[in-house]
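Q: I'm teaching a short session on how sequence maps to structure, and I want students to see two examples side by side rather than one. Could you give me a first protein with its sequence written out and its structure tokens following it? Keep the formatting plain so it prints cleanly on a handout.
A: Of course. Example one:
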Amino acid sequence: MRIALDAMGGDRAPGVTVQGALWAAREGVEVLLVGEEGRLKEELSRHGASLPVYPASDWIRMEEHATEVRRRRESSIMVAMDLLKRGEVGAVVSMGHTGATMAAALFTLGRVKGVERPALLVEFPSQKGRTFLLDGGANADCRPGFLLQFAAMGLAYAEAHGLSAPRVGLLSIGEEEGKGNALVLEAYPLLKAALGPRFYGNVEGRDIFLGPAEVVVTDGFTGNVALKLAEGEAKVLLGWIKEALTSSPWARLGALLARGALRRVRDRVDPSQYGAMPLLGVEGAVFIGHGSADALAVKNALLRAKALVEAGLMDRVRQALQGLHV
């Protein structure tokens, strides 16, 4: 089972994409690099290494419009999606243009039956392990039925990750059933009726990190704001901690003694450890990472894609959607 990597996607491609692919290959991932053959082989030769390359003569730049994929069938992301459509790879990973990757997936693969809108799943660290939030930015405006579909796909993803009996929370401004905007008030009874005991109820923003519900659903506008807020706060807090631990000789000594514990904390909030976000709801396993991703993020994205394909993610998503009773 090979994973196709859009090796031209991202702010620092193909340098970091090739490096991350090589690291992943050393850990057992069968990677197929998709992109401009000459540049990829030149990058591989710099490392004195070899990986299979599938040629693509074009690629979508980060500043270009997502709809460019419609007319640029030879772009690396479209070629990768075609390989997935034909069953020649088990998943596609891209650290490139998010909108273009989503568009390419929809144009080439189509939607899973029962899905009106695909969603990006975002992973947050929590006190109980991890929280999965949908939608992370694919759909700024949502209808209540979309949130129910997000919930089903999120539960399938959590179970593929090995979580037993995960529950769904509905992001709102209060825990009480009557709190929230029009979308939340309409979605609440829909989720309650369809999910039964798997529906936790309303959760607030702080609960994303406290973890009473392993899956949290919201519209893509709110979800993306939550994601960017969390990433920004984590970066600032880590900076403050570093500043405090280097403020005096005694502080530096304490930092040296606590180095291992501090590294574990840093790793829990580092986006590179999570690699990429799955685009759930399209007919194929597609993972999208940050455009600013480093080689570690590329490696972890490929490892995650392999593990989830092997766990039968797509079959789980299809079954979860078939099981909805609305």
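Q: Perfect. Now a second example for contrast.
A: Example two:
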Amino acid sequence: MTGLLLRLAGPLQSWGERSAFSAVRDTAPFPTRSGLTGILAAAEGLPRGAALDGYADLELTVRVDRPGVLLTDFHTVGGGYPARFTAATSGGKNKGDAVITRRHYLADAVFVIAVTGPDQRINEIGAALQRPYWAPYLGRRSCVPDEPFLLRHTVADPIAELLTEIPLASPYTDERLGRPMPPAAQSVPITFVWEQPPTDSRDPVPLTSHDHPVSFGEHERAHTKRRIYRTVEYLPASLLDHGEQTVHERLIDYVTHHTSRTEPMESTA
């Protein structure tokens, strides 16, 4: 079993869990399994209605570097057109008027994801993420990911990288959003979301999430529930971007160091 590492960051991201095609489009507080599977399937060019068996054996672990701030955006859909071009109803007709929706986003959030699975599948997915068939996005097509996106595509122990190696995004310093870390602190508390309860973590909190994808078919989208576990892990404070380097400079150093030593980039020749 090996793994790969993704960093999901950008101005906005949204991970809908319960509100498909409703007037209020929610977001989960962290990337869902459905959303992450969608990123991988898009990179591999999987048709929308194709079977998702190739992702069943993957295990996803989420490190919440920064939870972000909940933002609600007001939208109208289908206004200003003849009735036949407006939003459709379940009865096969058209609404005739604009549909009002409110869509929730996470602003300024940062997550690092460890994807673990069989070696062959990790190699296939890693190659696809280097040259994706369809571009990745953070839950909605308008949510473009920041760089670097793919941190490493072949990792022997991705969980160890989350805990000890990958630079952390700066914490909020505004008192309304979170207290800054004391300068002399040796560790920083970071939330993790696991699919299996970690044996060496403090008091995992079991949660239920309705985000396990069964089908992405246009007219047959289906999801089931899964059990996940939330913990708080104390990571070395040295992972924060102290000194003159920004977090992006530290991340680029991390990526290039491992790429040049153990993970040759795919040739573009």
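Q: What should students look for in example two?
A: Point them to this: The domain at 2-17+24-70+104-261 is CATH 3.30.70.2660 (Alpha-Beta Plaits). Also worth mentioning: Residues 15 and 159 are 23 Å apart (CA to CA).
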